[in-house]
């Protein structure tokens, strides 16, 4: 049985899944979606618009009249991956349109791949459509080309990402996302709620709320109220929780008002899960990052959250080897992690990114030291995870089924697990009659470093 392993880049979205059968003679477009879940949502929006115009969606290069590559520019390694994907699409198909974060610098792409048909930046949907129209004219059949009410989704039918805002107002020195995606731009709350309602009506059992800074939702529009819905994360979470699906919050900065979300979790309205990008714990490192430097108060806040909601799962990502990080600062991070006892942890090794202010900082950490610190950090995080999961043996966990293979083994996730970045719960017998998307009770029999194994308990929650 395979188990989850920590990745160097814990920001990646699940693999895009395309399930579409183009009609005879229908113009078709392929999609390669790289990077984070926010980029995956952009890909879904592009394909939804194209599908509404009569285009088919191809799952492979050979069946596509042109291919869109939605790129990532978060790290230099991600840029290299994007350039490689563009090159592969050119080799396999030849007609390639590039969009996404890397498209914010068109010359960077055309300097390597001059044969691409067009380059557009992130969430420039109209420009992408114009490029597709120029490359592959639409040929809709109004009697056949019907678009599902929920649009085109690249995730399994039972869960979906729900993007509530674009951009970010933070000025972290290591990040160029605000330069590529702009300042915070929140969607109206009633528009978010309407999209969520349509998703739940179409069979979605879990809504994964994403943005660049979920806690700041609505700040840019002064928490405007429209159609009886206020653009504030607490109000939005409460409204989403009333829809009856699991609601999971990602990218939540630990502002003071986050404590208002925790009672909603304790009451079962939204999942007891917070994904908070702490990035580091030593105040000097945080200051060099241009991030809030109150690690001690953060520990107090975590304790307060857990006092309200003991079942709370905390997930975070960290950067090791940031310029100027001393061994003492890194040891302080390990000590902080010991105290915080986070449930789910991902870690990046610091990389320079063209345009980031951190590039100019002194005392860059050698690659071998970064690797050593990453290894030590992940060993600490793994030991904490193993202990926490061992404590779940003998408990009954509510879980959602993501997959059932040909041998009847069900891959599930508990309320503490986000898709493809956290652990799994495996059930290897008694799954007859169950379906993907079912929510079941599982008695945990065994625990590993990142995953659980168990047997079905009471099926009344299906």
Structure description:
The structure is a single chain. The chain has 462 residues and is α/β, with parallel strands linked by helices. 30% of the residues lie in helices and 20% in strands. It contains twelve helices and 20 strands. It starts with 27 loop residues before the first strand and ends in a 6-residue tail after the last strand. It comes from Roseovarius azorensis. InterPro entries: Elp3/MiaA/NifB-like_rSAM, Methylthiotransferase, Methylthiotransferase_N, Methylthiotransferase_N_sf, NA-bd_OB-fold, Ribosomal_uS12_MeSTrfase_RimO, rSAM, rSAM_horseshoe. Belongs to the methylthiotransferase family. RimO subfamily. Keywords: 4Fe-4S, Cytoplasm, Iron, Iron-sulfur, Metal-binding, Ribonucleoprotein, Ribosomal protein, S-adenosyl-L-methionine, Transferase.
Task: Summarize the SSE layout with pairings.
Layout: E1 28-33, H1 37-52, E2 56-58, E3 66-71, H2 76-92, E4 96-100, H3 106-110, E5 118-119, H4 125-135, E6 159-163, E7 165-166, H5 177-181, E8 185-186, H6 189-201, E9 206-210, E10 225-226, E11 229-230, H7 233-241, E12 246-249, H8 262-266, E13 273-275, H9 283-289, H10 295-308, E14 313-320, H11 327-340, E15 344-349, H12 367-390, E16 396-404, E17 410-414, E18 425-427, E19 439-447, E20 452-456
Parallel strand pairs: 1-2, 1-3, 3-4, 4-5, 6-9, 9-12, 13-14, 14-15, 18-20
Antiparallel strand pairs: 7-8, 10-11, 16-17, 16-19, 17-18, 19-20
